[in-house]
């Protein structure tokens, strides 16, 4: 099979020919149709996330069909189209797993990080972490739902249903999806982009933001909550300045640059800063049921598998409108 492989941090991906993997007892063999490209992939390539499996096939926003199943993985029939997210396996026994917080499992393994992912024509995944996808979505449009959509959805949940004035910092793949859910819920949305990013601000207003501006300025009125999708620690005190008393700042990324010191006055009056770690299977089931009802519409920039490095570069440089997606069905 064709695959784009990371051999060492800081290096480009290498186009390779690898043996098609075999499904283990509780795994599914999947033929990959599409895989979105996530900022977490950049963090792995840049060495900001430690100890990845090497060599590694990146990719954790997978859309695929089941080709074969292990002996204990027959609940999803062969031929079913499924999505595979970042969370690839949990122990199912620890205090976090048994209390509905499997996203915090200390033994968790992650797709495209410790488990080979979707930047390849085939992959294997544990059957418990494969989810049938809504038929309304074509493959390349379903792929961003599996991380950008899911982490955005969990971040929105962590903000609280009562938070009506919502700020989104970093208007990329996650924000362009979750703004649609927030507007569906009747929330008011204020979007923050890189300073001077007029195109990003225009994109946010097209999707329903009532105000859009640079991340260095305050919104026209205080926010009830802010969701941070850009991995920039300096945005934490900026968001604290923007939220009202008892406001919540939710950091949605798996990695962020250091948060600079800030005066206690920014946190005072019962403001809260919290992070989001990964996702749960309940998040996936709830979001995939909700997305077609909104309906959440994904905007994608499509690349062939062989152009994975170009897709990563475009993402790094902020040149992707919506989400970058590798189309595995495109010609080599």
SSE inventory with pairings:
Elements: E1 2-6, E2 14-17, E3 27-37, H1 39-45, E4 56-57, E5 62-69, E6 81-84, E7 87-89, E8 109-110, E9 122-126, E10 131-132, H2 139-142, H3 148-159, E11 165-169, H4 173-184, E12 188-193, H5 198-206, E13 211-214, E14 223-228, H6 235-242, E15 243-251, H7 264-267, E16 272-275, H8 281-290, E17 300-304, H9 308-316, E18 323-327
Parallel strand pairs: 11-12, 11-14, 12-13, 14-15, 15-16, 17-18
Antiparallel strand pairs: 1-2, 1-4, 3-5, 3-9, 3-18, 5-6, 6-10, 7-8
Helix pairs in contact: 3-4
Question: What does it look like?
Answer:
The structure is a single chain. The chain is an alpha/beta fold. The chain is 23% helix and 27% strand. The chain is built from nine helices and 18 strands. The protein has helices at residues 39-45, 139-142, 148-159, 173-184, 198-206, 235-242, 264-267, 281-290, 308-316, and strands at residues 2-6, 14-17, 27-37, 56-57, 62-69, 81-84, 87-89, 109-110, 122-126, 131-132, 165-169, 188-193, 211-214, 223-228, 243-251, 272-275, 300-304, 323-327. The strands form four sheets. Strands 3, 5, 6, 9, 10, 17 and 18 form a seven-stranded mixed beta sheet that branches. Helix 3 (148-159) packs across helix 4. The chain is globular and about 55 Å long. The mean pLDDT is 96.
């Amino acid at each position: 099979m064709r695959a784009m492989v990371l051999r060492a941090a800081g290096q480009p991906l290498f186009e390779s020919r690898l043996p098609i993997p075999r499904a283990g007892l509780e795994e599914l063999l999947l033929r990959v149709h599409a895989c979105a490209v996530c900022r977490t992939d950049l963090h792995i390539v840049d060495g900001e996330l430690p100890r990845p499996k090497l060599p590694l096939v990146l990719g954790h926003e997978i859309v695929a069909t089941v080709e074969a199943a292990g002996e204990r993985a027959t609940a999803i029939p062969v031929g079913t189209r499924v999505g595979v997210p970042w969370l690839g396996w949990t122990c199912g026994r620890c205090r976090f797993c048994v209390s509905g917080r499997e996203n915090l499992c200390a033994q968790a393994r992650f797709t495209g990080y410790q488990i080979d992912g979707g930047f390849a024509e085939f992959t294997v995944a544990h059957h418990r972490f494969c989810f049938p996808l809504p038929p309304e979505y074509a493959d390349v449009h379903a792929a961003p739902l599996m991380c950008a959509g899911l982490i955005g959805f969990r971040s929105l949940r962590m903000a609280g249903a009562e938070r009506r004035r919502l700020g989104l910092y970093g208007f990329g793949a996650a924000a362009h999806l979750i703004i649609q859910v927030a507007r569906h819920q009747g929330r008011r949305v204020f979007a923050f982009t890189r300073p001077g990013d007029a195109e990003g601000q225009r994109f946010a207003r097209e999707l329903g933001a009532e105000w859009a501006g640079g991340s260095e300025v305050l919104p026209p009125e205080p926010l009830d909550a802010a969701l941070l999708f850009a991995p920039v620690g300096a945005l934490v005190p900026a968001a604290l300045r923007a939220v009202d008393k008892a406001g919540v700042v939710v950091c949605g990324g798996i990695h962020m640059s250091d948060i600079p010191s800030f005066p206690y006055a920014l946190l005072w009056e019962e403001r809260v800063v919290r992070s989001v770690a990964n996702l749960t299977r309940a998040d996936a089931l709830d979001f995939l049921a909700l997305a077609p009802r909104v309906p959440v519409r994904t905007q994608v920039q499509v690349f062939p598998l062989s152009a994975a490095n170009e897709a990563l570069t475009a993402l790094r440089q902020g040149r992707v409108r919506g989400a970058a997606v590798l189309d595995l069905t495109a010609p080599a």
